[in-house]
Amino acid sequence: MASRSALVTLDALRAAATAIAGVAVRTPLLRSDDLDAAVGGPVLVKPEMLQRGGAFKFRGAYVFLSRMDPAIRSRGVIAPSSGNHAQAVALAAKLFGIPATVVMPTTVTPAKRGGAERLGAHVVLAGTTTADRMERAVEIARKEGSTIVPPYDDALIISGQGTVGLEIVEDAPQARAVLVPVGGGGLSAGVATAVKLLDPSIRVIAVEPTGAPKLSRARAAGKPVRLSSTTGLADGLLAVEIGGIPFAHHQKYIDDVVTVDDSALAGAMRFLLDRMKIVAEPSGAITIAALLGGLVRPAAGPTVAVLSGGNIEWAGLLALLGDA
Fold this sequence. Notes:
alpha/beta, Rossmann fold, 2 domains, four-stranded parallel beta sheet, 10 strands
């Protein structure tokens, strides 16, 4: 686990915000009367499906590549990813004019693989777990001399994802709670750090799938715990272990963590589509599922729900929402 001295600072978060200014989308905060009524209190959503690449991941990927030595960066980058990080790195690499390889699971959705390929990345498939992808990425990096862009266990990546939290507090200083999805932990660590450094009174609640409770297990044990397996619809949140550096941030800045069953995800996706005209992938809808399911009670002031992404294809939507 990272030491306290390794925690991301407010200066680092602001430097990341400067790095992505004019390149990444500053996503808005949206409100729906229907969502307020369904939850029983004011809710603002942060739709990161409107981000370049269709998910929040572009923020961290661009910050990481922007800080690389140009000579090293020119050799290319490689990204182990379930899908969204791969697309983000592919896009950032395209903007910097360098080659990118992405290592994705054999179960990757057509939308996420197709997105990476359209952005010019070379796609390699390896196993089904985060460990499988990282092992293959290390092997390729050693052979080709490219640099691995970590999906979440890195301070620069956390700083980039933390710009989501900076924007939330700047745009909604009246917010009293923030809900954020947790996979490997980069987004949740960055958002929690930014929010708490700017306003410690705002509660930050991490939301993870019941089939991948890596943060819940880690908090119970006081250290990251490797799960024997993970399963569920939220493919972007199925890491088998929380990252060590993110976990250090979680321990300091996360107030609570809740888990959501798969059965609630399709309903949340359908609600966002029908009532707010927002297309969310299962991982992106998990915070809304937590609110609609009553796992988190509305705060005295607005609650902000981070929607992490929307990379799902038409066939996938039909399969999940046909009977929802």
